[in-house]
Amino acid sequence: MTNKLAEIYEEYNRYIYHLCLKLTRSPQEAEDLMQEVWVKVVRNEEQVSQVEHVKAWLTTITMNTFRDRYRKNVRRSKYVLHQPETLDVPILDLVPNNEISTEEQIEKVAVTKIVQEKMKQLDAIYQKTLWYFYVDQYSLAEISALMKVSIGTVKSRLFRAKARLKEILLSDDAVVDVVLTA
Predict the structure, then answer these.
(1) CA separation (Å) from 7 to 32, 33, 114, 136?
(2) Does one domain contain both 78 and 158?
(3) Residues 94 and 109 in one domain
(4) Most buried of the four, 12, 81, 166, 175, by CB within 10 Å?
(5) 3-class SS at 143?
């Protein structure tokens, strides 16, 4: 760890911990989250020198890390319900059947193709931003680094791209019924 990172850690460590505590409402989870945040900061050490507002940058990393953990926990809890260990029901009965029907699979593929075709009508910058966020599932910070723009610019592009894509989809009468029912 460089001197610059050590200085940042000393200056913002308490702030990040209190932010994590506010988000998680648990000291143990706050410490885990804070550790993940600092690991990301160390991994992105080369970006530190380019950051103008370190506190805002750290806040963004913290918020995105918290959101990622939350989404991961929601996905995980979707498959196994949190039940007491003394439950008389076998654990396999608690696992929902997430298989979708053949009809739903065909419909999903059709909608995906339609959306991908309509995405081609967007400007390249909007296509790329949507692709990174929804398909590659990059965080806003990662997209910002890839595209060499601020996180605010990424957010604006996502907002505009979604709005424009919605316009394009709704302007095609043949597509409206398919997309609205999906």
Answers:
(1) 21, 20, 51, 34
(2) no
(3) no
(4) 12
(5) helix
Structural domains in the chain (count): 2
What is the tens place of the pLDDT at every residue in 50-63?
A: 888 899 999 999 99
CATH number for the domain spanning 52: value is 1.10.1740.10
DSSP structure class, residue 49: T
Rounded distance, CA 42 to CA 8, Å?
A: 11
Q: Per-residue confidence at 178, pLDDT binned at 50, 70, 90?
A: low
Judgement on whether residues 105 and 94 belong to the same structural domain of the protein:
no
How many CB atoms neighbour CB 156 within 10 A?
13
Same domain? 20 vs 89: yes
Which residues are within 8 A (CB) of 60 and not within 5 positions of it... i.e. 6 or more apart? Answer: 140, 141, 151
Interatomic CA distance for residues 73 and 166, integer angstroms = 30
pLDDT at 58: 92
* Residue with the larger pLDDT of the pair 172 and 164: 164
- What is the DSSP code string of 68-98? HHHHHHHHHHHHS----TT-SS-GGGGS---
Q: How far apart are CA 45 and CA 28, in angstroms?
A: 26
**Which residue segment(s) compose the domain that 104 sits in?**
99-182
| pLDDT averaged over every residue in the chain | 82
pLDDT in tens, 60-78: 999 999 988 888 776 666 5
